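C-alpha cells please, single chain.
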Amino acid sequence: MFYAYILQSEKVGTYYYGHTKDLDNRQKMHNLGKVRYTQPRRPWKVVYSEPFDSKSEALKRELFFKSIEGYRYLKEKGII
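Here you go.
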C-alpha cells in the first residue's frame, strides 16, 4: 500500500505534500529532521492521507495536490 499525504507544520502552519509506502515512518523522518525542507518547521502532523495500490498512483495524487486545481479541491473540501 502506498499513500499520498499532507502534513501541516504545528510550528508555522504550512503544508507539505508527499507520497510514501510507510506513512508512520515517513512522518517520523520529517519530525526527526531527516528531510531538509521540513526540518526547520518541525513538528509535523498528518492532516490528510489517501491509500493507493501503486507508487505511481500515489505520486500522481501528490502532483495533483501541488497543482492549482488540487489546491482548490483541498480548500473546497476543508482539508487545508
